Hints:
Strand content: 15-25%
Structural class: alpha+beta
Radius of gyration: 22 Å
Number of helices: 6
Oligomer: single chain
Strand order of the largest sheet: 6-3-4-5-7
Number of strands: 17
Amino acid sequence: MGMxxxxxxxxxxxxxxxxxxxxxxxxxxxxxxxxxxxxxxxxERIYYFFIDSWGEKPKLCLMERAIKHARIIAEIQAPDEMVxxxxxxxxxxxxxxxxxxxxxxxxxxxxxxxLDDGDNSLVKPLTERVAHEDMGSKLPDxxxxxxxxxxxxxxxxxQELSDDEVRDIIVKHNFADGALxxxxxxxxxxxHYGQHIVVDLxxxxxxxxSGLDITSSRTMNKKIDKLNSEGLxxxxxxxxxxxxxxMSLMESSANDKDIHLNTNFSKEQPFIFxxxxxxxxxxxxxxxxxxxxxxxxxxxxxxxxxxxRTI
Length: 311
């Protein structure tokens, strides 16, 4: 684990920092089975510094991490030039990779200026906030009767799609995509069906209002099999949506929850797996946070799940 140092965050004294842990390593360690040999028990907490570069300017932060637990507990008031220099040294990175490991310069600065008997005024604790998500205005209730309407049937099931084929899909159905079709719009007719389900009468699909936590492709499929064996919400044929099905929910502008979805869907699944693999490699995802389709490896960092079924 490296050198031992302590830092005070509010009234809490943290007596060791894991200098080897990075944002890239956390998924394999804490969200899949790939690195569990590092974890002694599910309640163990580790602490590491990283750079959060999702905002207007990068910030040096202290992360508290455990199995299925991740919380930024403090921001460190480090020199802006030093933090920016570390980010710049990473080179070109994917749009969705905005969390960076610290470099040796930042580590040495922390040891010399912040940790142990350093300047604790540079440590700004972040209060954990428990927010109740606004799930939007109530939709009309669906009575469960599928007779009398002809849905727009979208392709479903496993596919292999190239970049050009995905682009053609977006244009063909006029789906909203911030990069490929910014002015696109696909009209839905959404209804509630109980507390946990939204039905779209345009596509004839039943959707989870929330979904499944982030994990790898393999573990996601295992989770779906388990939920179907248990009869999630009374059904045993839930599945990952196709690219077309997932994009049918995309809205051209973000709502008050800063996500491109009807507000009756949870914001806690910002980007989801689809059932499509990418040619020549990877998996296709739909990102409701940034309003677009993208591809990634499907292993690290993996993705969330929002399951659907045909009514």
